[in-house]
Design brief:
alpha+beta
Length: about 190
């Protein structure tokens, strides 16, 4: 096997042997430099670049995870707001339906302002929204569900920029909600 390679390498070995020691040292140094450069570019540089970029990627992924967790919490809260109250969560219903309807009307006008209009229709109520701040709507929904035992059965909302004087970071809602009113208390 050694004899098979010798005819191919023979001219190169003869030429190498014919070089002066200083030329051989210069060529060896150049070949070593090229080999080190190749090792750097192929093996070390990509690994070091990945290592340098890792903290920034980690921070970006952390922000994305926090955003996803906030969205999950909001989705769970909205699901809980949409679910009808159970027997355990219903507790004591309002004493009389007219009082409950008046309390619902009062809460809409006081907490949601002029941008909300409530129309009562038997066992349901239709809430129409126009430029209602999102935090106010979320707070009202939570209070209405807890205090008045109403539940949202349908929501059709569109995010809007809100009035010009409002903060750009605070979204507003247009749309409608259909609310299920609790049944009237049975009289003994």
């Amino acid at each position: 096997m050694n004899t098979a390679r010798s005819p191919r390498l023979g001219p190169w070995r003869a030429r190498w042997a014919g070089l002066a020691p200083r030329e051989r040292q210069s060529i060896s140094l150049a070949m070593g430099t090229v080999a080190l450069a190749l090792v750097w570019w192929v093996l070390l540089a990509p690994a070091l670049q990945t290592l340098r970029a890792a903290p920034a990627q980690h921070a970006a992924l952390d922000l994305q995870l926090q955003r996803m967790q906030r969205l999950e919490a909001e989705a769970l809260r909205l699901q809980a707001d949409l679910a009808p109250p159970t027997a355990e969560s219903a507790g004591a219903l309002p004493a009389a339906r007219p009082d409950m309807q008046r309390a619902l009307q009062d809460s809409v006008s006081s907490q949601l302002g002029t941008g909300a209009r409530l129309v009562l229709q038997g066992e349901r109520a239709q809430l129409t929204l126009k430029n209602v701040p999102a935090p106010a709507l979320a707070a009202w929904l939570g209070q209405a569900r807890q205090n008045l035992k109403v539940s949202a059965v349908e929501m059709r909302l569109t995010a809007t920029a809100g009035p010009a004087q409002a903060s750009a970071t605070e979204p507003h809602w247009d749309g409608s909600l259909v609310l299920a009113l609790p049944p009237a208390e049975a009289t003994p």
